[in-house]
């Protein structure tokens, strides 16, 4: 279905201050320069030097006062004037050929006032020939006298240079001017044109013919300059970043680029027009070409009529893949891709100016209505050219869109099989959220109440739009992308994190993991406590969102990770040492069904799954996660791995770190280490730690039984001393410390409970020495003295060695 181009009048200029003077200047002077402010509320008209008064008019939409300036004969008028992209207040800069620059501002008080005046060429003798403003930078091309900067003997064709200074607001009424940076030395006279992110240096009628076929594109955000010869199809890219001190001598630059100095005729261009896609140029044959920012040049299309001489007016602009060209009183719309003529309209006046669209994020409510088209200004009023929706295409109302979107949302969360419909949502009192939003869109809520309710969110969205505008302009791209990622993660954390939102979050983490983790760090309010642990002051609902989103035995769809797994994966890449403390902190949070204590997988298992397969994952991280999990099986598994690696100190510390609330787990770790103690002597040095780990209710009999169970098999009869090169066996001396530990822990005062407890009792004085003599069996009646020494019910054999 064919689109229809429409030309709709937006205003008759009556709502601008100084409307009569505005119409008069637009109708009387076809050569007047017209600029539009970044927010679209101000119009600047500047007449050429020598024109009747006033030479400068700034009209404002609304009740604010306009600005009129006139310069008497003998006092030159400004060479050019531009609005500055300051979001806080409107400001403009006026530049004279002498190098004088004035910054004017409005919004602090009634009317406009001079904020700053400076000399761009303080050395004197220079003449400014062209000016442009690029994202807060004032750029100019100046002609210097012979002898300046060593230019003595230099041809006049290369006596120019291109410089810039930054212009930034300072408080409510001040202006900061940066120092002067020189981009190009010894260059010809260039005209300057600026889009939102690029500066174009184009040849003029006074440019030396030998380089009249060359133009340059400087991209500050990329720190590069592109030298292009459209007629040759050649382009070369060079580094040009003034922040790093880069500067170029124009002649040296061209001599280092082969092929650009081939004999060619200068470019014959009627009209230049900067656009976001590049630089448009209209030649005298009616052909429109586009020099793209990467250096390529292509023909867009050919107009039905060609411009007649330099006196004819022409203006170029683009919108929605469409080229708009106003040539005299004719408006032609061409497709940017195919060059096909889409529509041609005859206007009622030949004095029409195309206005640049407002900067992204700076439009007010009235300007939002004109988005998607181009604005045309003439003495008859302000018009918009755009595309009209095809007939028969019914555009749904805002209320219908609300209920359709709500249907999709509720259907994803619903367990019933029946399909929800917008009509059901409109009349069912259960679904109150879409009904409330629909009533707001219908105007049932007063605008003041709505603005008060949404003020904070509107401020956030405006800041986000301004940030996107800076990215589009190419200013400080790395920091801009980081901030944009943080905004996006913070926004997604406020959603349900299901479906598309979770996919978007995964995408941000993959593209900018550092910025994404920074946003999560602020959302969870994570801080180290100085002991290698983390603490969080985030509310429970935030942790609920972090820990949820997974089910036992179910893999994430299409490789999309839930938020907890996503954070673990990000930490594993950026700061692996903080992964175990983070998982340990997450285990302390949670509630039923959150993932930290619910029926799903334990958090340490979910974190281990992110580390990969067992053969590839980091053993150190795996051990830390197992030890910090607090789960008996996991801790035993970790201690078993430490025992296999003979990391005795760490294995003992893992057991001693368990509190009194885990007696069974401590007992199991003790038995595991006691088995190793019985088999070899590599644990002897850690015997004090092993004693501390000994369960308090363990008796000497149980201890000896455990040791006997794990003693190595004796292949040969025991000898008093081990053979050289063999490991010494377990001795009673080594075992005595453990036996004392088990006997001292709550020794009973009653009868003896163990056959071995009396061994540990110190009688204080040694028993009497038995008499020497032949070996006999001691009888109790014959030796009454020994009766008291021998234990009751036991017979002793004494051997006389004498």
UniProtKB/TrEMBL annotation:
One of its GO terms (biological process) is protein localization to membrane. It comes from the Eukaryota. Pfam families: HPS6, HPS6_C. Its main location: membrane. Keywords: Cytoplasm, Endoplasmic reticulum, Endosome, Membrane, Microsome. It is found in: Microsome membrane. Residues 1-385 form the BLOC-2 complex member HPS6 N-terminal domain. GO terms for cellular component: BLOC-2 complex; early endosome membrane; endoplasmic reticulum; lysosomal membrane. Residues 400-772 form the BLOC-2 complex member HPS6 C-terminal domain. May regulate the synthesis and function of lysosomes and of highly specialized organelles, such as melanosomes and platelet dense granules. Component of the biogenesis of lysosome-related organelles complex-2 (or BLOC2) composed of HPS3, HPS5 and HPS6. Interacts with HPS5 and HPS3. Interacts with biogenesis of lysosome-related organelles complex-1 (BLOC1). Interacts with AP-3 complex. This is Hermansky-Pudlak syndrome 6 protein homolog. It comes from Panthera pardus (Leopard). The gene is HPS6.
């Amino acid at each position: 279905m064919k689109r229809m181009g429409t030309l709709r009048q937006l205003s008759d200029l009556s709502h601008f201050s100084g409307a009569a003077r505005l119409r008069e200047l637009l109708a009387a002077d076809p050569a007047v320069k017209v600029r539009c402010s970044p927010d679209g509320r101000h119009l600047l008209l500047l007449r050429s030097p020598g024109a009747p008064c006033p030479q400068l008019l700034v009209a404002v939409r609304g009740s604010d006062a306009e600005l009129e300036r006139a310069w008497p004969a003998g006092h030159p008028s400004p060479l050019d004037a531009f609005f500055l992209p300051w979001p806080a207040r409107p400001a403009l800069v006026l530049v004279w050929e002498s190098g004088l620059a004035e910054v004017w501002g409005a919004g602090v008080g009634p009317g406009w006032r001079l904020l700053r005046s400076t000399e761009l060429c303080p050395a004197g003798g220079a003449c400014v020939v062209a000016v442009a403003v690029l994202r807060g930078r004032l750029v100019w091309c100046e002609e210097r006298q012979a002898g300046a900067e060593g230019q003595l003997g230099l041809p006049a064709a290369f006596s120019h240079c291109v410089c810039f200074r930054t212009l930034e607001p300072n408080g409510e009424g001040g202006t900061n001017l940066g120092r002067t940076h020189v981009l190009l030395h010894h260059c010809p006279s260039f005209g300057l044109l600026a889009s939102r992110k690029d500066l174009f240096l184009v040849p003029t009628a006074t440019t030396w013919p030998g380089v009249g076929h060359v133009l340059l594109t400087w991209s500050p955000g990329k720190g590069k300059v592109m030298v292009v010869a459209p007629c040759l199809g050649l382009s070369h890219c060079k580094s040009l970043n003034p922040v790093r001190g880069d500067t170029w001598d124009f002649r040296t630059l061209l001599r280092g680029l082969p092929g650009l100095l081939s004999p060619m005729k200068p470019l014959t261009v009627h009209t230049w027009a900067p656009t976001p896609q590049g630089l448009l140029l209209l030649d005298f044959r009616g052909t429109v070409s586009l020099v793209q920012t990467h250096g390529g040049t292509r023909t867009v299309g050919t107009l039905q009529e060609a411009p007649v001489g330099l006196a004819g007016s022409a203006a170029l602009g683009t919108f929605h893949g469409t080229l708009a060209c106003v040539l005299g009183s004719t408006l032609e719309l061409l497709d940017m891709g195919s060059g096909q003529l889409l529509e041609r309209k005859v206007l009622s006046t030949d004095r029409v100016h195309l206005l640049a669209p407002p900067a992204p994020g700076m439009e007010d409510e009235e300007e939002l209505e004109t988005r998607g088209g181009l604005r045309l200004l003439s003495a008859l009023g302000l018009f918009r050219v755009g595309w009209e929706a095809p007939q028969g295409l019914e555009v749904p109302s805002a209320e219908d869109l609300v209920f359709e979107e709500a249907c999709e949302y509720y259907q994803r969360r619903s367990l019933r099989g029946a399909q929800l419909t917008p009509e059901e949502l409109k009349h069912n009192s259960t679904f109150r959220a879409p009904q409330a939003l629909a009533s707001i869109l219908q105007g049932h809520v007063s605008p003041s109440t709505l603005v008060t309710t949404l003020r904070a969110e509107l401020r956030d969205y405006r800041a986000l739009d301004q940030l996107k505008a800076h990215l589009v302009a190419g200013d400080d791209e790395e920091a801009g992308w980081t901030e944009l990622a943080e905004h996006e993660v913070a926004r997604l954390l406020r959603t349900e994190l299901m479906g598309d939102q979770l996919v978007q979050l995964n995408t941000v983490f993959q593209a900018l993991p550092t910025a994404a983790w920074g946003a999560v760090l602020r959302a969870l309010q994570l801080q180290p406590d100085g002991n290698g642990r983390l603490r969080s002051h985030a509310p429970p609902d935030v942790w609920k969102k972090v820990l949820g989103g997974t089910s036992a035995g179910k893999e994430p769809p299409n490789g999309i990770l839930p938020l907890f797994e996503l954070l673990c994966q990000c930490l594993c890449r950026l700061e692996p040492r903080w992964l175990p403390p983070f998982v340990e902190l997450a285990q302390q949070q949670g509630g039923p069904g959150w993932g930290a204590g619910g029926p799903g997988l334990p958090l340490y298992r979910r974190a281990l799954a992110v580390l990969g397969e067992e053969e590839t994952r980091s053993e150190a991280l795996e051990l830390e996660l197992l030890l910090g999990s607090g789960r008996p099986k996991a801790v035993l598994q970790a201690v078993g791995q430490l025992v296999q690696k003979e990391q005795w100190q760490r294995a003992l510390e893992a057991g001693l770190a368990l509190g009194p609330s885990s007696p069974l787990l401590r007992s199991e770790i003790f038995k595991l280490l006691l088995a190793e103690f019985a088999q070899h002597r590599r644990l002897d040095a850690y015997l004090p730690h092993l004693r501390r780990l000994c369960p308090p209710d363990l008796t000497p009999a149980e201890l000896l039984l455990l040791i006997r169970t794990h003693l190595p098999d004796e292949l040969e009869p025991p000898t008093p001393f081990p053979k050289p090169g063999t490991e010494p066996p377990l001795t009673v001396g080594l075992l005595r410390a453990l036996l004392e530990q088990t006997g001292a822990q709550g020794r009973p005062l009653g009868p003896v409970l163990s056959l071995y407890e009396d061994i540990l009792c110190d009688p204080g004085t040694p028993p009497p020495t038995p008499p020497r003599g032949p070996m006999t069996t001691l009888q109790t009646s014959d030796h009454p003295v020994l009766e008291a020494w021998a234990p009751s019910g036991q017979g002793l054999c004494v051997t006389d060695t004498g």
